[in-house]
Amino acid sequence: MDALAAEAFLNASHRVYGLALRPMSLGHAFTLEAIGSPFYHGAAGSQKDLRLAAWICSRPPLVTFDSAGLKFRAWDYFAGKLDFEKQLVRWAVYVSDFCAPPQFWSSQKGEKAEQSKIPSAISTVAHLMNIGMSEAAAWNTPVGIAAWYQAAFYENETGNRLDIVTDGDRLAILRMRARNG
């Protein structure tokens, strides 16, 4: 079995800034992208950015929150006293646990297709709904699982096999880099 598939489907529980995080769903990804959170894409951000991302992912997907509310402000105050670097590591482990899509070999042939203006989370939710999930279930689907479902559906419907990088391929690449490095 591919290690990324196992990573996407077999998850641990995660805590960041004392909050029990829910699985990183398409709804969480959409919210984090909508607010411009650097932490969904692994970019550097501030302690405040990380606390906000953790708060969002501790709540149900697509739920609005009141950052001026007493509960959030009290938690934010105490969370701000925790070690940022430690929380950053916890966040990275959380994201890698739930955002483990299949890895594809890149093709350098021909022109690149124009990127859609529709946010990817919305496209993925629409696709999951098209294959039979309810809208709520689709928005609650963890990011990595959604990607694996889409890949499996594509292969089942078209009969074409996707060019997925295997665990053996990844190991060979690492060995080659170590020799050349």
Written account of the structure:
By secondary structure, the protein is mainly alpha-helical. It has one domain. The chain has nine helices and two strands, in the order H-E-E-H-H-H-H-H-H-H-H. It has a two-stranded antiparallel ribbon with strand order 1-2. Strand 1 and strand 2 form a beta hairpin. The longest helix has 16 residues. The radius of gyration is 18 Å and the shape is globular. The two termini are 29 Å apart. The mean pLDDT is 89.
Give descriptors for this structure:
two-stranded antiparallel sheet; mainly alpha; 181 residues; 3% strand
Average pLDDT score: 89
Order of strands across the widest beta sheet? 1-2
Query: Structural class, from secondary structure content?
Result: mainly alpha
Q: What profile does the largest beta sheet have?
A: 2 strands, antiparallel
